[in-house]
Design a protein that fits this description.
Blueprint (H helix, E strand, L loop, with lengths): L3 H5 L6 H8 L7 E8 L2 E11 L8 E9 L8 H15 L4 E5 L2 H4 L5 E2 L3 E2 L12 E5 L9 E2 L15
Parallel strand pairs: 3-4, 6-8
Antiparallel strand pairs: 1-2, 2-3, 4-7, 5-7
The structure holds coenzyme A.
């Protein structure tokens, strides 16, 4: 299933972090959503449930999102993001975070985030890429760094 990742991200091996997140058996949870065509995985997104206090699980980190190159720009990425946000809304999530291109995530309503910080300081050129969306009718998470499960606690995942 993880063969999608080297195709979508040829410069970065995301398979270890995705595999570790899918195997988590801790207090944290992940939401994994996938699109298949002829039993081949063609699009996948993970949301890691998190918060700004260790006991808080009212936030989620969207990452990674990947679509196999032959199927990009057909709305698959957007459908997974929207389906994920709807599922998280139904389960009580208040705010969703992402590190990505504002030109892409802005279309879903993500905006630059500064009160809640990623676990490692971002390089200057990536600062505008840290974004969040508040789920309608919910309240913002307390400010501070996000507590994320161990697979995310690798500084290499948070720099170019
Ligand atoms: C980025 C990605 C997830 C988008 O998924 P997708 O299914 O191809 O995109 P959608 O069909 O939902 O949306 C297409 C629109 O997004 C835009 N878009 C696609 N990739 C983009 C990117 N990396 N940055 C900004 N905009 C992007 C396109 O311009 C397109 O807009 P248009 O149709 O108005 O021209 C997918 O292209 C991908 O896997 N890319 C490689 C991995 C990657 O960069 N992931 C990003 C994680 S932050």
């Amino acid at each position: 299933m993880l063969q999608l990742y080297p195709k979508a991200f040829p410069d970065e091996d995301l398979r270890p972090v995705v595999a570790a997140l899918l195997e988590l058996e801790t207090d944290f949870d992940v939401l994994s959503m996938a699109t298949f065509e002829d039993s081949e995985l063609i699009a996948h997104v993970l949301f890691t449930i998190c918060g700004t206090r260790e006991v808080d699980k009212s936030g989620a980190l969207l990452a990674p999102l990947g679509v196999t190159p032959s199927h990009q720009r057909r709305g698959l990425g957007a459908s997974l993001v929207r389906a994920g946000l709807e599922t998280l809304e139904a389960s009580g999530t208040r705010q969703v975070f992402v590190l990505g291109d504002p030109a892409y995530y802005g279309r879903f309503g993500f905006r630059t985030e500064s009160a809640v910080r990623p676990p490692y300081a971002l390089p200057e050129q990536w600062e505008g890429a840290w974004q969040s969306i508040l789920i309608s009718g919910r309240t913002l998470l307390d400010e501070g760094p996000l507590f994320l499960p161990e697979p995310w606690m690798d500084p290499a995942l948070w720099r170019p």
